[in-house]
């Protein structure tokens, strides 16, 4: 069964108090259940595209597997919504406990005490390298490119957009109703196609929450650009993990919140 990323629906729209019956487009969402070695491990609500990439990105970033070569077989059944994953090894029976266990920690190089999930501590990377440098103009150009390519968002207003880019332009873009899903789709594609992340930037349409910054750290990118706002905890984590965060990129203005040395302030 093939699904479209948007669905047509007849609605009643009021404009200046007047009623109009019109056709509108809404974002499509479907449940995706992942089975590993025959065992159900998670059900995600997702947009109906790039499902295999999303699952691979999720499994690696959440620590179910350490690399994509641990997967022997992956099969997506669109009709049932199941993704069947066969691993070369047995699934760690304690991994689910790590997924849900919180603890006060200084792991991931974090000197500030903060509640995080144990699985996050296992897979998060500290970005000590300085391989990516951007000018303010490049940041704004990349954000404009993301928004120009956000077709499903323009049609429905109900999805998040994420892209992988170099300073010269977008390399890969993904859309999903779930913020995490969009990033997992990027990461899964890179893992499956051996696309290097060393010189890449994440561009994101939504708010920079702590979970999004942690996901970027798991993917292994030094810089994240957003048109929206960060949270204080997201910035604390970004600072500790040495990730450059840039927010509110709009109308020729932007805010650099953490690790500003990756932004070349001497150029336009």
Automatic annotation (TrEMBL):
Keywords: Cytoplasm, Molybdenum cofactor biosynthesis
Compartments reported by the entry: Cytoplasm
Name of a matching Pfam family: FdhD-NarQ
Principal place of residence: cytoplasm
InterPro entries, per the entry: Cytidine_deaminase-like, FdhD
Record flagged with keyword Nucleotide-binding: no
UniProt keyword Kinase present: no
Active site, per annotation: 108 (cysteine persulfide intermediate)
HAMAP family: FdhD
Family: Belongs to the FdhD family.
Reported function: Required for formate dehydrogenase (FDH) activity. Acts as a sulfur carrier protein that transfers sulfur from IscS to the molybdenum cofactor prior to its insertion into FDH.
Protein name (record): Sulfur carrier protein FdhD
Organism: Shouchella hunanensis
Lineage: Bacteria, Bacillati, Bacillota, Bacilli, Bacillales
């Amino acid at each position: 069964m093939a699904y479209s990323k948007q669905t047509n629906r007849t609605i009643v729209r009021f404009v200046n108090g007047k009623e109009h019956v019109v056709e509108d487009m809404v974002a499509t969402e479907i449940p995706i259940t992942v089975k590993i070695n025959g065992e159900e491990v998670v059900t995600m609500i997702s947009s109906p595209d790039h499902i295999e990439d999303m699952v691979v990105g999720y499994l690696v970033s959440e620590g179910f597997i350490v690399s994509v070569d641990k997967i022997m077989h992956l099969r997506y059944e669109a009709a049932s919504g199941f993704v069947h994953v066969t691993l070369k090894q047995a699934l760690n029976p304690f991994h689910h406990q790590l997924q849900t266990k919180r603890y006060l920690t200084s792991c991931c190089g974090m000197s500030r005490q903060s509640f995080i999930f144990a699985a996050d501590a296992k897979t998060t990377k500290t970005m000590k390298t300085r391989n990516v440098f951007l000018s303010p103009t490049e940041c704004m150009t990349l954000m404009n490119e993301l928004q120009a390519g956000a077709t499903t968002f323009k049609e429905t207003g109900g999805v998040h957009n994420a892209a992988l880019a170099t300073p010269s332009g977008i390399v890969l873009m993904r859309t999903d109703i779930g913020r995490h899903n969009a990033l997992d789709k990027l990461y899964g594609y890179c893992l499956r196609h051996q696309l290097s992340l060393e010189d890449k930037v994440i561009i994101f349409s939504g708010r920079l929450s702590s979970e999004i910054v942690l996901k970027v750290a798991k993917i292994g990118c030094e810089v994240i650009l957003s048109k929206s706002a960060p949270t204080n905890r997201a910035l604390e984590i970004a600072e500790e993990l040495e990730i450059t965060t840039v927010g509110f990129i709009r109308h020729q203005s932007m805010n650099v919140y953490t690790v500003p040395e990756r932004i070349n302030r001497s150029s336009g």
